[in-house]
Specification:
By secondary structure, this protein is α/β, with parallel strands linked by helices. Among the domains are: 51 residues, no CATH class; 88 residues. Helix content is 27%, strand content 17%. The chain contains seven helices and ten strands. The strands form three sheets. A four-stranded parallel β-sheet has the order 5-4-6-7, with helices on both faces. It has a three-stranded antiparallel β-sheet with strand order 2-1-3, with no helix packed on it. A three-stranded antiparallel β-sheet has the order 8-9-10. α1 packs across α4. The protein is elongated.
Length: 211
């Protein structure tokens, strides 16, 4: 019927949990449930191992801005603008990452065990969709990861980065963070305040965020 297997977490046939290899018989009653990443159903499901709660993502080439937002929210998110579907799927499987994509065909690859078909088109609303889908509002660690290279950031003294700061930034800000990977420097400017509002919106604001 075209539903990616990554969207299915529980299949019941006549009330009994079965796996994807089960053969149906005439008169069977089948119930198919979506992924319960926020609920541990390992005691009853035969479809997959326990939910992947060490949440790490791999985003396809069309979701670069979403990947950046997820990194700023504190989630380990791989993204490359040049990798093909096979490469992405194999990397996600090897590193136990959740594939994020707008390509239904990618999620149908056998190598993909955990994934989500992103429905929204606007990056900030996509972020809310992913946080809602995997129940991650309580796991946010904003501004602990670099939006550019995905490495952790750490606080640094102003004197250590003063030479590379724009003059106005050096004049008005005193707290700075530097990426441990690419060296990018962050401070709490207008972009910070905007994103903080987004991360604080939670469930109550999910319908209006980004509009």
């Amino acid at each position: 019927m075209g539903v990616p297997h990554t969207e299915v977490d529980l299949i019941l046939v006549n009330g009994r949990s079965v796996d994807f290899a089960h053969h149906l018989a005439d008169g069977d009653r089948v119930s198919v449930y979506p992924v319960f990443e926020a609920l541990d159903i390992s005691a009853v499901t035969a479809v997959r191992p326990e939910p992947l709660r060490l949440v790490r993502f791999a985003a396809d080439t069309h979701l670069g801005r979403l990947a950046g937002y997820l990194r700023l929210a504190g989630f380990d998110t791989l993204y490359r603008n040049d990798w093909d579907d096979r490469d992405l799927a194999e990397t996600a499987a090897t590193e136990r990452r959740i594939v994020l994509t707008r390509d239904r065909g990618l999620l149908m690859r056998t190598a993909v065990t955990h994934g989500h078909l992103v429905r929204e088109t606007r990056p900030r609303v996509q972020l809310v969709e992913v946080l809602e889908r995997f129940d991650l509002w309580g796991s946010l660690r904003p501004f602990t990861r670099c939006s550019v290279c995905n490495s952790p950031v750490e606080k640094v003294r102003k004197g250590e980065v003063a030479a590379i700061l724009p003059p106005r930034t050096a004049r008005y800000f005193d707290d700075f963070w530097r990426c441990t990977g690419c060296g990018r420097v962050y401070w709490r400017g207008a972009h910070y305040r905007s994103l903080l509002g987004l991360f604080s919106a939670g469930r109550a604001g999910s319908e209006t965020v980004g509009r």
